[in-house]
Amino acid sequence: MPCLPCLSVPFSDRRRFLLAGGLATAIGALPAWARQGERIRHNPFTLGVASGDPEPDNVLLWTRLTPPLAGLGEMDAPALPPLKLRWELAHDEGFTRIVDQGEAMALPQWGHAVHVQVNGLAPDRWYHYRFMLGDAASATGRCRTAPAAHARVSRLRLAYASCQRWEHGYYAAWAQVAQDAPDMVLFLGDYIYEYATPAMTLGLARTQPLRTAQTLGDYRDRYALHKSDPQLQAAHAACNWAVIWDDHEVENDYAADNGRGDPARFLARRMAAWQAFYENMPLRASVLQRSFQGLSLYRDLRWGNLVRLHLLDGRQYRGIQACRAPGQADAGSVLPQECAQLDDPARSFLGWEQEQWLYRQLQGDGQGKAQAPIWSVLAQTTLFSTRRYPSGKQSTDSWDGYPAARQRLVQQIAQSAPRNSVLLGGDIHQNYVCAVPLQAHLAPDKANPVIASEFCGTSISSRSGTTQAKVDAVVAHNPQVLFARCEERGYGLAEITPQRWNNELRAVANPLRADSPIYTLAKFTVEDRRAGPQAA
């Protein structure tokens, strides 16, 4: 049976969670435009539709209603009551062969977002879905179930992307993703940016009127802004999305309980941001039920015997960046000899509980284990490989800032010995293709063999903030980096088969044009049982 959003919120302070950002919604009489059968004179589905993690026997469907004449800053209209909408799932786009249908409540305390899980479905099947309120209907979305857990699978077509700041570029990349027709989109963080539009607007693709996000209403408005983009809506409607977060869904460079400024104010802001993330992402209610402190986003997805995706949370549980004072505005880079904290083995990037969970997952992926996948994939938020700058400095916000934790993970991959290990990342607004050696901080050679492959993708639209000359200098100091570019924006497209992983780096010709053409910047292949990407 389909289920409605979980309402037993397991956060440590339920009242603060529900009322974050001053939300105290007054429920009035049902307005005429929302009554069943009434003619709707506006489109209540302006934020589109989406589907979430593909599972073999169910799909997760999402939408969020908007009131009449809603503009940015008006998404939390307090007079808007709970609204009952209808949904349909069908084999065909014309909805002549209905598989299942039902009703769901869009509640004000959840921003009138709806998460519907439809159970009892056949594995490895495409479906079409839509929502209805009165006589208004949403766009039609396309979703699918995953293959059965251990079925023999010949292919997975996977798009991966991150970082889509509104002002820095149009979303032409998403239009192309929809045309690529992947089985799944993997979004690796920074779905929104919390900033206001800069005072200097020269060179921006577009501007927006919102202030820097602080409250629940602010974050809801920010998601409404991004989701108003038709190209992003098209990509969501094209297939299932599996999502994780990075920092800008809350605040730049935050680490667990550590943000900038007053700690109490930051925690209230973080709680508001986390609620807005859940409301606006196609996530199951189970992410609320597994943790009493936040959203439990680390999880795994199977694609038959072909792929096992381990989705990781690199923000909620990590230790504070090395040599960063609590309340300091942003993390930066340090010289290792001037920051003893950098190599402290007690520091964790994932948090100890998530580390142990991941180790158990990797042990299950090991060769010789029953039902082990052909490809073991770690989907996380940033560059994993070592990236030393010519100055000798190291970033403190990426895995470079947690070298002991990185080496623990590398050792676990080596000991578990999955048949093929691939890491995916984002965050840095640059394309990096790397070979991951057994000793992550040393150059790969015969004594230090490559054990995994890495593809860290550039941004959908966000600027990189560096030059290609500087990136080339980094490559010269890091032999494990096989390819690096900073001047393009776009996404990655992987065609995964039992024999090989074919990876295309897709780039936007002009991010200042919504109709920009897309081209292939580079192609790489990882052969089955041969760690390390090869230029195709």
Please provide a written account of the structure.
The chain has helices at 14-18, 172-180, 216-227, 230-238, 263-280, 286-289, 352-365, 403-416, 468-476, and strands spanning 49-51, 59-64, 83-90, 98-106, 113-118, 126-133, 136-137, 141-144, 156-161, 184-187, 240-243, 299-303, 307-311, 333-334, 375-379, 394-395, 421-425, 431-437, 450-456, 481-485, 490-496, 500-508, 518-527, 534-535. The chain is globular, with a radius of gyration of 23 Å. 18% of the residues lie in helices and 24% in strands. It is an alpha+beta fold and 536 residues long. The protein has nine helices and 24 strands. It has a seven-stranded mixed sheet with strand order 11-10-9-21-22-23-24. Strands 12-13-15-17-19-18-20 form a seven-stranded mixed sheet. Strands 3, 4, 6, 7 and 8 form a five-stranded antiparallel sheet that branches. The model is unreliable at 1-29 and 69-78 (pLDDT under 50). Helix 2 packs parallel to helix 4 (230-238), helix 3 (216-227) runs parallel beside helix 5 and helix 7 runs parallel beside helix 8 (403-416).
Q: Using DSSP, what is the number of strands?
A: 24
Placed side by side, the strands forming the largest sheet appear as 11-10-9-21-22-23-24
Strand content: 15-25%
Mean pLDDT: 90
Low-confidence blocks of residues: 1-29, 69-78
- Large-scale geometry: globular
- Tally of individual helices: 9
Intertermini distance: 47 Å
Helix content: 10-25%
Rg: 23 Å
What is the oligomer described by this structure? single chain
How would you classify the helix and strand content by structural class?
A: alpha+beta
